[in-house]
Inverse folding.
C-alpha cells in the first residue's frame, strides 16, 4: 500500500516514557476522528490477551463497529440484531466472502487469513459499510468516538514511528515521533469525519414520498 509521509516531529520517542502514547485525533474541521487504526511498527506491544475472535454486529441497519482490527486467521462472526435479513459480502482481494440472506446468528463465522483491508457491505442496504483491518502488527488499536487511542509497548524499546490508517484517508500516514512529545500527542488529520452509514430514516422517506405526491398533483394534466 502506498504510504503518505507526514513528518510531525523529528527524532525518536525515548524509552524513558513508560511505554505508553495517548493520541488525540481531530479532523480539518476540528471535530474528533473516530475509527482510525494506529500502529507503532517495529516495537513489541505491552503484554495483553491475544485476539481470539471478533464480531461485527448488524444493528439499526448499520455495521457495528465501523472499523475492527484483527490478526490474520481470525474468525469474525456477523450477528444480525435487526428484524430484517442482511446479506453481507466483500469483494476485497484475498478476503472475499458472501453470507446470503440471514437472521439472528444463522451465519457461520468467517476466517480472514490475508493481511489487508476488507471492505464490508450489505447487498440489501447500500448505506451499510464497514472495514476489517487485517494486520500482523500487534500494537494496532482503533480510535474511539472521541478520537482517542492509547498505544502501549515494551519499556525496553523505543517507538520512533506512528502509522495511521483511516477509511477517508487517500493513503496511510506516517508520523515521526520525538522525545519531546512525551506520552501524549495531538494530531490533525487531512479529513473531516463523515459517517458513511447514515441512511434515510422512515420519517425522511415518508416526507419525500408526500412531497413527491404533492408535486405530482400540481403538474398540468
Amino acid at each position: 500500500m502506498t504510504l503518505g509521509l507526514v513528518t510531525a516531529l523529528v527524532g525518536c520517542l525515548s524509552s524513558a516514557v513508560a511505554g505508553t502514547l495517548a493520541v488525540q485525533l481531530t479532523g480539518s474541521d476540528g471535530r474528533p476522528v473516530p475509527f482510525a487504526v494506529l500502529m507503532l511498527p517495529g516495537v513489541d506491544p505491552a503484554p495483553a490477551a491475544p485476539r481470539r475472535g471478533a464480531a461485527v454486529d448488524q444493528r439499526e441497519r448499520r455495521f457495528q463497529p465501523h472499523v475492527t482490527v484483527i490478526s490474520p486467521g481470525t474468525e469474525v462472526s456477523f450477528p444480525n440484531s435487526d428484524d430484517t435479513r442482511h446479506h453481507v459480502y466483500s469483494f476485497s482481494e484475498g478476503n472475499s466472502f458472501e453470507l446470503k440472506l440471514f437472521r439472528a446468528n444463522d451465519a457461520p463465522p468467517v476466517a480472514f487469513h490475508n493481511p489487508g483491508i476488507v471492505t464490508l457491505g450489505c447487498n440489501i442496504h447500500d448505506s451499510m459499510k464497514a472495514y476489517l483491518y487485517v494486520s500482523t502488527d500487534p500494537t494496532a488499536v482503533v480510535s474511539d468516538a472521541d478520537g482517542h487511542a492509547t498505544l502501549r509497548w515494551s519499556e525496553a524499546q523505543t517507538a520512533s514511528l506512528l502509522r495511521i490508517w483511516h477509511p477517508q484517508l487517500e493513503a496511510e500516514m506516517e508520523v515521526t515521533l520525538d522525545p519531546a512529545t512525551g506520552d501524549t500527542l495531538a494530531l490533525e488529520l487531512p479529513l473531516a469525519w463523515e459517517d458513511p452509514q447514515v441512511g434515510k430514516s422512515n420519517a425522511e422517506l415518508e416526507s419525500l414520498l408526500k412531497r413527491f405526491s404533492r408535486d405530482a398533483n400540481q403538474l398540468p394534466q
